[in-house]
Design brief:
80 residues
Length: 80
C-alpha cells in the first residue's frame, strides 16, 4: 500500500509543474509599475502577464534557432 501512495504523490508533483508555470516576474515591482500608471491590478493579472513573458521567451528561442544560433539576443524579442 505504501508504494501506491508514493507513486500517487509523484504523479501529483508532475501535474503541478505542468499546470503552473514558475513566476518569472517580481510581483511587487510589476504592481508598482502598473499602479504608477494609475491603474488597479486584478488578482489574475500577474499570472497572465507571466504567461505572456513565457510566450515571448519561446518566440525568441525559436527565432534564434531558426537563424542557426543557440544564443538568444535582444533583437530576437522584436521580430518585425
Amino acid at each position: 500500500m505504501a508504494k501506491k501512495k508514493v507513486a500517487k504523490k509523484a504523479a501529483n508533483k508532475t501535474t503541478k509543474k505542468v499546470n503552473k508555470m514558475e513566476m518569472l516576474l517580481v510581483g511587487s515591482k510589476t504592481k508598482d509599475a502598473l499602479r504608477a500608471m494609475k491603474v488597479n491590478v486584478a488578482g489574475d493579472a500577474l499570472e497572465h502577464l507571466n504567461g505572456v513573458v513565457y510566450w515571448y521567451i519561446a518566440q525568441a528561442a525559436k527565432r534564434a534557432q531558426s537563424n542557426g544560433r543557440k544564443t538568444v539576443r535582444g533583437h530576437d524579442f522584436f521580430a518585425g
